[in-house]
Amino acid sequence: MPEFTPIPTITALYAGLLGLMSIVIAFMAGRLRGGPDGVSIGDGGKPELILAMRRHANFVETVPLVLILLALLEMNKVSGTAIHCLGALLVVARGCHAYGFGREGALGILRTVGTMGSMLATVVSAIWAISVF
Question: Cα–Cα distance between 66 and 74 in angstroms, integer?
């Protein structure tokens, strides 16, 4: 049975950074709900609100799994450098995705870069977690 680190401190750094990013993305959706024409539940058919809601949903659909995988890898003594690389990849990818989401042209490419970076972090972390077993 492998030894493990009880507290994944490197992962905590990336969880904190991504947590702050999540607040910003959630606020962007929330501010569209306010005001006299605000929408409390649903999207009210407003394209800008739909976009903001999907931006936030994409974030929360991806980030928790990768953070769990990173924590498990760290607890199983995978190198700190590897955890930092995967964590940084995820932070940059999610930032690119959020910024590029719903934009056209060159800025829209950032969404694809973000999606591919997030998928890469997920796949590498998942396969590594399996290989540690």
Answer: 12
Residues 88 and 60 sit within 8 Å (Cβ to Cβ): no
Alpha carbons 29 and 53: distance in angstroms, whole number: 6
Rounded to whole angstroms, how far apart are CA atoms 53 and 42? 9
Q: What is the pLDDT of residues 73-128, one digit of tens each?
A: 999 999 999 999 999 999 999 999 999 988 888 788 999 999 999 999 999 999 99
The full set of domains in the chain, from first to last, is 9-132 (1.20.120.550)
- Residue 33 has phi, psi (to 5 degrees) of -80, -25
The per-residue pLDDT for 29 is 87
- Interatomic CA distance for residues 91 and 99, integer angstroms: 12
Measure the CA–CA gap between 127 and 103, rounded to whole angstroms. 32
pTM of the model: 0.89
CB of 39 closer than 8 Å to CB of 33: yes
Any idea how long the chain is? 133
Encoded tokens for 80: 């700190």
How many CB atoms are closer than 10 A to CB 32?
20
